[in-house]
Design a protein that fits this description.
311 residues; alpha/beta; Rossmann fold; N-(1-d-carboxylethyl)-l-norvaline Dehydrogenase, domain 2; 12 helices; 10 strands
């Protein structure tokens, strides 16, 4: 199996690196500037789950140069999808590759299906807290390093089974779920609360858990997201809300969301892809989600990456 990782942020480098570490054929499609850095500094993962580094990895910056791919792991931010779509289409058409998007949210699935065909877009998500240092190396600071994937179309069973076999070799938790949409929505519910409350408050999860009012706001986001999932035909339950709330409280006190990390760095934020997406789903079903709407309004002012001064 050959895997092409589209995107070389912390997510793409971490999981692409883990597949490489296991001896699987992996290449990376990246921007020119990132390609220069990767060629100079190499791929390196610093992780409590085990370090890994490799020089001279296969890097592409031109989709025309990619002649093989069974799966394209899409590891980009939601706000990059529109710009990336023509290149993804070109690579997939040339190689007949399936797409495994590891984006947060749900709107990207329909966008990709409309562009590539429903049979080509596998369901997927990832759980990891990681960032890049100034050399472009991954700093992975949590025990979680999970990929979940599963078929969204009957023609994907074979490729998902092949990926499941390859996944058994890697130093990460990567496994197949037949009901992948339910898991995507569980992640969407969790990340909307986690990213929303930490970014709006500009505090770590430990600070949030130390405030009953802040914790209640996060729990209310989970409840609102559960309602939206149910409206979309996904059977999330009150127990799923409780489990997500417990997951928030079980995180290390210093932990924070990738959105909050991006806010600290003055980078663009996925607020439109996550919270804006939830608001569009709510509008479709004539539902009100006041806490999500409030967090969206607060975070939206930072969407384009206005640099901030943080201690």
């Amino acid at each position: 199996m050959h895997i092409t990782v589209y995107g070389a942020g912390a997510l793409g480098i971490y999981f692409g690196g883990r597949f490489l570490e296991a001896g699987i054929d992996v290449s990376f499609f990246v921007r020119e500037k990132r390609a220069v850095q990767l060629r100079r500094e190499g791929l390196k993962i610093n992780s409590i789950q085990g370090n890994f580094e490799k020089q001279n990895i296969t890097i592409h910056t031109d989709p025309k140069k990619i002649d093989k791919a069974d799966i394209i792991i899409l590891a980009i931010k939601g706000y990059h999808l529109e710009q990336a779509l023509p290149q993804i289409k070109e690579i997939s058409k040339k190689t007949n590759a399936f797409i495994l998007p590891l984006l947060n949210g749900v709107e990207h699935i329909q966008i990709l299906q409309e562009a590539l065909g429903k049979e080509k877009v596998i369901g997927g998500l990832a759980f990891i807290i990681a960032t890049l240092d100034n050399k472009g190396h991954v700093e992975h600071t949590s025990k979680q390093h999970d990929i979940l994937f599963g078929p969204l179309h009957e023609k994907q069973q074979n490729i998902c089974k092949k990926l499941e076999i390859e996944s058994e070799k890697i130093n990460a938790k990567s496994y197949m779920k037949e009901d992948i949409l339910a898991y995507i929505w569980k992640k969407y519910m969790f990340i909307t609360a986690f990213s929303g409350i930490t970014s709006a408050a500009q505090r770590t999860i430990g600070d949030i858990m130390g405030s009953r009012a802040s914790l209640k706001a996060a729990e209310n986001v989970l409840k609102e997201m559960k309602t939206l999932a149910n409206k979309e035909g996904i059977s999330l339950t009150n127990n799923d809300v409780v489990q997500a709330a417990n997951q928030l409280q079980s995180l290390p006190k210093h932990a924070t969301s990738s959105m909050h990390q991006d806010l600290r760095k003055g980078l663009p934020l996925e607020v439109e892809h996550l919270h804006g997406g939830a608001l569009r789903i709510a509008a479709k079903h004539i539902e009100t989600v006041p806490v999500i709407e409030t967090l969206y309004g607060i975070i939206k002012t930072h969407e384009n990456g206005t640099p901030q001064n943080f201690k």
